[in-house]
Structure formats: structure tokens, C-alpha cells
Specification:
Number of helices: 18
Oligomer: single chain
Shape: elongated
Strand order of the largest sheet: 2-3-4-5-6-7-8-9
CATH superfamily of the largest domain: Aldolase class I
CATH topology of the largest domain: TIM Barrel
Helix content: 25-40%
Structural class: alpha/beta
């Protein structure tokens, strides 16, 4: 298998994405996870540029790394300046990092109009910086900025820059599609040309402005590049960098390349979600390989086929990347979808009972329920059909009241009546709204019998108006997310009365919490 080196630039290029801000502590934690995953290089940022990056390189230089080389990012020396007198070059040289990624202009336009110097000086900036850092004992990756645009405009200068980097001792030359505008065939042909004129290993650094950053990266590997740059989840400036969460499994599972160990590849989904959490962004549900919907099947005939053969509608085994197959249930579901999902939950359903579940499901969804986003409520729907299932409590009725006097908003009040076994409970509580009061009253009623619910709390509450043209008479769907601190689950309720919809979702949430140990598989 061809060995492909991975350079992760989540902490540098990824951190340049709009809305992304990693603390020094965040960067250190992510770096450790990337090292455990098995990437070869971790680009940590600009040494000396800001306090966070100074702290990062100070700490990483004294840490032990199993797989990765911490890489300091910088630029070639300033025009008409010696490396010894260039503060940015010195910051890289003294960073303590074993490797450096140096951005260099490989485009005539960039040299003349952005650096505002001549082409010989542009070549000198590359060769002087590379040789200086090599003499400092660092491995040097040259980020050939605007490479493909520069090649198409002035091939001779761009290849002269390649030769200058090679002669100066560059360890890698990373061909950068800086503006993200190059096409797949262009990249493939240009990489092949560069491979034919230099002995330095070639890397690809693609941006996603045309939506093909991954495709461009794979094409470059196919043409002979042996290192790929990218970010976890495709974070990065503008529309982002090429997504390593798509590139790595595609290379390893489809193109016969070796990037990380197979066990480490099986942690990719976890890594993806970890970086999303650290970046304080919601995971992309439809992200290839690692998204929650990547192996989710909703159409009835898809579920029927996967019940017979798991890979019928899956291009790889989900477990290879640490993900799982999910059978979604909705009004599109047939008996196969329901039977398959029931089997995953350890429940047996005959064809007749599955057909009845499908009928009830369609009726409920026509009334505003949506079970594909509330799998806990669907599991309860299945279990409640069984004669063997006894609910832990049985709601009898509820009453909620909100009163406002002279503009004041006193607490809302709610009363709840329910059965736990043969015992009847009738409780009342206050809250900052009718749903809050209902939640408090419900908890007061069931906590004496089920103290384990003390650790269960609602973490999200969403209301959607289903037919807005009906105004205040509109049907309402309520989705509740609850958690016990380790696990979370979603429940749903629907009604023209938002309080009643909320009550249904609340009851499901606590009932599901009480059956979690027996349903977990």
C-alpha cells in the first residue's frame, strides 16, 4: 500500500475560519487527539504571532508525541532582508518545533504585485529561507502558495521556484490551490508535470471554494503526491479547507493507500465530533463518513434491502470509521424499516405487528409528529405495543395555569395526577412558564419512586409551528432533548395546544430514562 503522509492544519488554517476561535488549551487538547489518531504533522499556528500560539509552542516543545511532528507555520523572509534579521523567520527557527511549513509565492503575479519585488528576489526569498531553517535542524515543508494559478500563468517561473526550493533542501513541496478555483483534471496534470521535474516529495494543499477540495486532493494523490494537507471537518477560511474526514477514509478504504492504522481509522467519527465540540459548532449531520446521517436509511425499500444485506445501500462499512447504520422511521417507512429498527433495539415484531406500527406511525406523523428526530419516542411506541411492557408510571391528567396581573408575570402553576403501580400521586409546582411548572410537578410526583431520575435534566426544548397560515390555531410540534449526563435522547409531542404537546414529550422523556438500561445495546 502507498504510504500517504497527513498534515493537519486544523489549528492554523482551520482556526482562520469565520466564527472559529481556539484557546491555547483547546489547541493542545486537539493536538493530542490528532497525535493519537496518527497524523504525521500538526500545524500549530504562527510562533510569536499572538499569546495563544506562543503558549502552544512553548508547551508542545516539552511534550512527548507518539506519531506527529509539531509544525510551525511561517513565511519566507521579507524582501531584501536576511533571515537572521527577519523576526518572523526567527520565531519559526526558535519555536522548538521539529518541522516548519513556510508559505512562499510561486506565482509571478503574487511576486510582482503582492510582494512588490522582482522574480529573482522572489526565488531568493524561497531558497534563503529554506536553507536557513534546514541549517537550524528543522524539516521544511514549502507551501507553494497560488501554485496552480501561477503555473497556468507563467509555467517557467513556477517550475524555477520548485527548483529553488529543491536546491535549498526542501523536504516537501506542497502545491497549494490557494484560491480553491482549480479543477480536478488541471490539478492531476500539473502534479504529474511537477513530479517529472523534481525529486522532492509532493504534497497537495487544497481549499474548497469550488466545492471540490476533496476531489482535487484525491486527484493529486492519484497523480503522485504523497502528502495531503487538510482540516478536520473541513474548517478553514472562506468555504474551508479540504476535509480530512473525507479524504483519509477514501484514500484508505478505496484507493489502496495507508494513512493511519485501521483501529485509529475506526475513531474518526469520534475525532470529528470532538473537534466540532471544541470549535463550539454543531456537527454537520450529512457530512460524508462521519455525519449522523451518513449511514441513515429512511426510504422503506432502502431499509428492506439493508435488512437482507447490510451493505445494500452503503458504500463502506460504517464501523470502519466509527459510525453506525441507522434506520429512520417516518411516514415513508414500511414494515421492513420498522422490523429492522425493532431488531436493532432487541425487539421482535411480527409482520402483522410491524404493519400495525406502520399504520399508527403514518397517522401520528400526519398529526404533526416526526419520529426520525425523536427516536426515544419511537422506541416507546414499539414497546407500548407489547403485552410484556409495563410503563413505570401512568399519567392521568394535568392542569397548567399562567396568570398576569397589572403587567406582572408571577410564576406559572401546574398540577399533575398520575399512577405509579397502584399508588396515586397528585402534585403541584410552580415554574417560570407552564412547561417549566409541568416539568417540576411531574418530577415531584415520580422522584419518590424513581430517585435515579434526579440526574435527568432537559437540555433543549424546540417548538415548531406546522401550519403557520392557521395563526394561533396552528398545530405545534415540540421536540425535547434530555440527558443524564452521559447519554442524551429526543422525544416529541404534537398538538394544537403547545402545552399539551410539551406534556407528551415530557412524559416520554422521563419514561424513556427509566427504561434506558434495558434498551441500551
Amino acid at each position: 500500500m502507498t504510504q500517504i503522509s497527513i498534515l493537519d492544519t486544523t489549528l492554523r488554517d482551520g482556526a482562520q475560519g469565520e466564527g472559529i476561535s481556539f484557546s491555547a488549551s483547546d489547541k493542545l487538547k486537539i493536538a493530542k487527539r490528532l497525535d493519537e489518531f496518527g497524523v504525521g504533522y500538526i500545524e500549530g499556528g504562527f510562533p510569536g504571532a499572538n499569546p495563544k500560539d506562543i503558549e502552544f509552542f512553548d508547551k508542545t516543545s516539552n511534550m512527548t508525541w507518539k506519531n506527529a511532528k509539531i509544525t510551525a507555520f511561517g513565511a519566507t523572509r521579507y524582501k531584501n532582508t536576511k533571515c537572521e534579521d527577519d523576526d518572523a523567520v526567527q520565531a519559526v527557527a526558535t519555536s522548538g518545533a521539529p518541522a516548519a511549513a513556510i508559505v512562499a509565492k510561486f506565482s509571478e503575479f503574487q511576486v510582482k504585485h503582492i510582494l512588490e519585488t522582482d522574480l529573482p528576489e522572489g526565488l531568493g526569498m524561497i531558497s534563503d529561507t529554506v536553507s536557513y531553517l534546514r541549517n537550524c535542524g528543522m524539516e521544511v515543508i514549502v507551501d507553494a502558495e497560488h501554485f496552480f494559478d501561477g503555473f497556468k500563468a507563467n509555467r517557467d517561473y513556477t517550475l524555477a521556484a520548485v527548483k529553488a526550493a529543491e536546491k535549498a533542501g526542501a523536504d516537501w513541496i506542497a502545491l497549494c490551490d490557494t484560491n480553491g478555483g482549480s479543477l480536478v483534471d488541471e490539478v492531476r496534470d500539473i502534479v504529474a508535470t511537477v513530479k517529472s521535474v523534481t525529486s522532492v516529495p509532493i504534497a497537495i494543499h487544497a481549499h474548497n471554494d469550488s466545492g471540490i477540495g476533496v476531489a482535487v486532493s484525491l486527484a493529486a494523490i492519484g497523480a503522485g503526491a504523497t502528502q495531503v494537507h487538510g482540516t478536520i471537518n473541513g474548517l478553514g477560511e472562506r468555504t474551508g479547507n479540504a476535509d480530512l474526514c473525507t479524504i483519509i477514509p477514501t484514500l484508505q478504504l478505496k484507493m489502496g493507500c495507508n494513512c493511519v492504522t485501521d483501529p485509529n481509522l475506526g475513531t474518526l467519527t469520534e475525532l470529528s465530533h470532538y473537534v466540532s465540540e471544541m470549535a463550539n459548532i454543531s456537527p454537520n449531520q450529512q457530512q460524508p463518513y462521519v455525519g449522523n446521517s451518513a449511514f441513515a436509511h429512511k426510504a422503506g425499500y432502502h431499509a428492506s434491502a439493508t435488512a437482507k444485506f447490510e451493505q445494500a445501500y452503503q458504500h463502506v462499512d460504517p464501523s470502519a470509521v466509527g459510525n453506525v447504520q441507522r434506520i429512520l422511521v417516518s411516514e415513508l417507512a414500511g414494515t421492513a424499516s420498522i422490523s429492522t429498527r425493532a431488531a436493532q433495539l432487541g425487539l421482535k415484531q411480527s409482520r402483522k405487528s410491524a404493519s400495525e406500527t406502520a399504520r399508527r406511525l403514518k397517522l401520528l406523523e400526519s398529526a404533526g409528529y416526526q419520529f426520525e428526530g425523536a427516536e426515544a419516542s419511537f422506541e416507546l411506541l414499539l414497546r407500548r405495543q407489547s403485552d410484556e411492557y409495563t410503563p413505570p408510571f401512568e399519567p392521568i391528567n394535568f392542569f397548567a395555569l399562567t396568570e398576569t396581573r397589572k403587567g406582572d408575570s408571577p410564576p406559572s402553576e401546574a398540577m399533575v395526577k398520575l399512577l405509579v403501580g397502584k399508588d396515586s400521586y397528585h402534585t403541584a409546582a410552580e415554574g417560570n412558564g407552564p412547561v417549566s411548572a409541568l416539568d417540576a410537578a411531574l418530577r415531584k410526583a415520580i422522584l419518590p419512586s424513581y430517585p435515579e431520575l434526579e440526574k435527568v435534566h432537559l437540555v433543549d426544548y424546540k417548538v415548531r409551528i406546522l401550519d403557520s397560515e392557521a395563526g394561533t390555531d396552528a398545530s405545534t410540534r415540540v421536540l425535547i432533548v434530555a440527558s443524564d449526563g452521559n447519554r442524551s435522547w429526543n422525544t416529541v409531542g404534537s398538538s394544537t395546544n403547545v402545552v399539551e404537546a410539551s406534556w407528551t414529550a415530557l412524559v416520554d422523556s422521563y419514561e424513556y430514562a427509566l427504561m434506558l438500561p434495558q434498551s441500551e445495546n
